[in-house]
Amino acid sequence: MSDALLQVDDLERHFEGLKAVGGVSFHVSPGEVVSIIGPNGSGKTTTLNLVTGALRPNAGSISLDGVRIDRARSVDIAEHGIARTFQNGRVFATLSVADNIEVGIHSTLRAHRPFRRLSHLFLLRWIPLLAELFVAIFGTPAARRERRSIDAIVETEIDRFEARLGPRRDDPAYSLSYANRRRTEIARALALKPKLLVLDEPTAGMNQSETAEVLAQLLQLKAEGQTILLVEHKLDLVMTVSDRVIVMDGGRIIAEGAPQAVRRDPAVIEAYLGR
Ligand code: ADP
Hints:
With 275 residues, the protein is α/β, with parallel strands linked by helices. The chain has 2 domains: 1-81 and 198-275, Rossmann fold (3-Layer(aba) Sandwich); 95-193, no CATH class. It contains 12 helices and 10 strands. The strands form 2 sheets. The protein has a 6-stranded mixed sheet with strand order 6-7-8-3-9-10, with helices on both faces. It has a 4-stranded antiparallel sheet with strand order 2-1-4-5, with helices on one face. It is globular.
């Protein structure tokens, strides 16, 4: 039994005959930062989509903490401990920064719906509805405790990006700069306290100083022991932050290892770095 946090074996995904991911195996150990690099179309995002449950594999297996997740729904995978961001940055445009962060927490909370579960027992839908109405109006100690703990998590994540998001915490996401939208998205993912943070090109579309800021934040997360799976084009950032680098080409892994070793690998230079 492997002690990897994430274990991926012989993963395959086709799109109408095209093998986007054709037999990929790798692992991420607790506390590691692992990056996947490779030319456009090499299967990086498809791999992330498979790991996070956005896509189902045609073959192979994915385990998180020893539990198979390759057939699980993405919401269950999130609850089990994987949070992600997207290549193009996805936030809810009309929600504030704070509410965007809170949405992430709610997407995996189940404990706040006890009466729905009771409804399965009683088969009388009006009883749980009345009970929920009562709770909505008067609250319960548990609900108030949960409210306080959610508020604390949101504030912690805003504090992480204090200089950038602090002054904007109540502003709607549509009014934010692109870089602040992406920071909000990372904060939302971190609010889930994920075992594994999956980042798809977190610096795409960012200028040099914004990229340097993301690098500093990644190094901070790494120092905190956060396990990260990263897809990123900016090689200087990848080489600085990663413990290991996986190189994909044509849906397969063509090299894997410590950043400096990968950089010198002739197959990598041919397929990617040399282009
Ligand atoms: P990368 O992230 O490395 O740029 P992708 O994983 O996005 O690569 O894509 C790998 C291959 O799979 C590409 O040839 C791409 O066109 C194809 N592909 C990805 N998603 C789809 C899809 N939903 N339908 C059809 N082909 C897809």
